[in-house]
Amino acid sequence: MNSAAEVTQDNKKDIAKGAGANFGGFLIRLGARVPFLLLAGHLYGAGIFGQYVFAVTYVETLSVLAVFGFKRSIFKFLNGHIRERNMPEAAKAVLNCLMIVLGFAALIVLATYLGSPLLYRLFGVEMAGAALILAPAILLYSLTEILLASTRAFRLMRYEIFTKSVMEPYSLLGLGTVLYFSGLREQGLLVAYLFMITLSFSSALYGFFRLFSFAHFRGFAPDFPLIRSMLAFSGPTAIYDLGNFFLQRVDVFMLSWLTGSTTVGIYGMALQVATTVKKIRQSFDPILEPVLSQSAETDDLKKTVSEMAQVSYWMASIQVIIVVMLFFYGSALMSLFGSEFSAAGIMLSLIILGDAVNGSLGISELLLLYKKPAVNPVIIFVILPLHLGLCYLLTSRYGGEGAALSIFITYVVMNILRIAIVRRLFEIFPLDARLLRPLCAGGVAILILSMGEKSFALNTIGGVLAGLFIVLPAYFSIIYLLSSSSERSRIRSLLPAGGSRQ
């Protein structure tokens, strides 16, 4: 049997490997995402893109409700069967979960169409109409999430990476382009999304049947005691996931209610660019969740905290430099998507700051999820009214900038509260002093760029090159110098020259 230290090291390797693979997938996705945003900005325009942003937000928010927390909690019902290699029981758990999710999704789609008069009254004809076109996607989106979660339980990332990083973005780009030039210029993005989610479901289904055979489902019948157990366990997670997702989407709903589709489109473009920071955390989550789930089951919190602190440090090291660079180059970057979007620089800066805080500091939510699942929903219900009030007041006064500011303030308050609760409940601190390294390096990067701003225009080609070839090496060199000797040795071993040294 492996020692606790060996298990911890193996877990860290799995987390790093899985996160690296998932982030590599994000870079592949970026190859289609950037052209898609250019297509949406220059061809469809901010107004139509705003309708698309609202409709997708509507679908994804209600899909979180349909998934009912199983995207993360399903691991509890699969881990034991996977360890024992009992594939029929694992398949049984997944199928029961799919039944639950399909039932919830069907009810939500039905309620959407029955409640369409309310949608029109709240958001207007254009926004509500777009949401009604996309509503059927809730069914396939929800099932896709469960199918991919079941493959991640085996610590296999390739099916999720292909589905999310290849199938979805490239099909959306291709279909969006074809439909626009075919004359479908108002609903082109919406129809492309419907086709894309169908292809995504097909890809996830393929991955699922690479792990399970039809023999594993022979004699299947709904297991109502298991269904009750799954619902009872996942209930707090479902409430938390819905609250947390809605917390991240309140700004879009509020803007859609208080402003027009053009403002929503400009803000939505800033959200898409800010995804770079958010995806760093999301790159870790798919593999981090099953690993921490297993670690938490052992009651060895020191091991779990070590894994959490390591991941927080990794995330912060990447996020801080991206935040700094986008703060200085954000407005110029946004203008690439069309002149309408050049005013989104402040929105972008506030959004990425909030995402960085929630990414690096918010990892404590996973410990609460697996050790005290009822706590996370309580935190959400405390924070959500604060965010709703802030978002309404700031959005009604400052528009998109106000919505972005409310997100930043809310994330800071929420993560301070999470860390305080973890400290109180478990007498541990889920972070360590290594987080100061990227903060110090980021401070130096800000100083260099501020001095450069006084000497030449950062938005020129020369200014961009200065950022890439001066600031980035300086940033990572400082982190290296502040690292321990053992960490430096590991870094050197990863370099081509270092790997050959004896």
From TrEMBL:
<feature type="transmembrane region" description="Helical">
    <location>
        <begin position="188"/>
        <end position="209"/>
    </location>
</feature>
<dbReference type="InterPro" id="IPR050833">
    <property type="entry name" value="Poly_Biosynth_Transport"/>
</dbReference>
<keyword id="KW-1133">Transmembrane helix</keyword>
<feature type="transmembrane region" description="Helical">
    <location>
        <begin position="91"/>
        <end position="115"/>
    </location>
</feature>
<keyword id="KW-0472">Membrane</keyword>
<feature type="transmembrane region" description="Helical">
    <location>
        <begin position="311"/>
        <end position="329"/>
    </location>
</feature>
<dbReference type="GO" id="GO:0005886">
    <property type="term" value="C:plasma membrane"/>
</dbReference>
<feature type="transmembrane region" description="Helical">
    <location>
        <begin position="253"/>
        <end position="274"/>
    </location>
</feature>
<feature type="transmembrane region" description="Helical">
    <location>
        <begin position="375"/>
        <end position="396"/>
    </location>
</feature>
<feature type="transmembrane region" description="Helical">
    <location>
        <begin position="402"/>
        <end position="422"/>
    </location>
</feature>
<protein>
    <submittedName>
        <fullName>Uncharacterized protein</fullName>
    </submittedName>
</protein>
<keyword id="KW-1003">Cell membrane</keyword>
<feature type="transmembrane region" description="Helical">
    <location>
        <begin position="127"/>
        <end position="149"/>
    </location>
</feature>
<feature type="transmembrane region" description="Helical">
    <location>
        <begin position="458"/>
        <end position="482"/>
    </location>
</feature>
<feature type="transmembrane region" description="Helical">
    <location>
        <begin position="49"/>
        <end position="70"/>
    </location>
</feature>
<dbReference type="Pfam" id="PF01943">
    <property type="entry name" value="Polysacc_synt"/>
</dbReference>
<feature type="transmembrane region" description="Helical">
    <location>
        <begin position="21"/>
        <end position="43"/>
    </location>
</feature>
<dbReference type="InterPro" id="IPR002797">
    <property type="entry name" value="Polysacc_synth"/>
</dbReference>
<feature type="transmembrane region" description="Helical">
    <location>
        <begin position="434"/>
        <end position="452"/>
    </location>
</feature>
<keyword id="KW-0812">Transmembrane</keyword>
<feature type="transmembrane region" description="Helical">
    <location>
        <begin position="341"/>
        <end position="363"/>
    </location>
</feature>
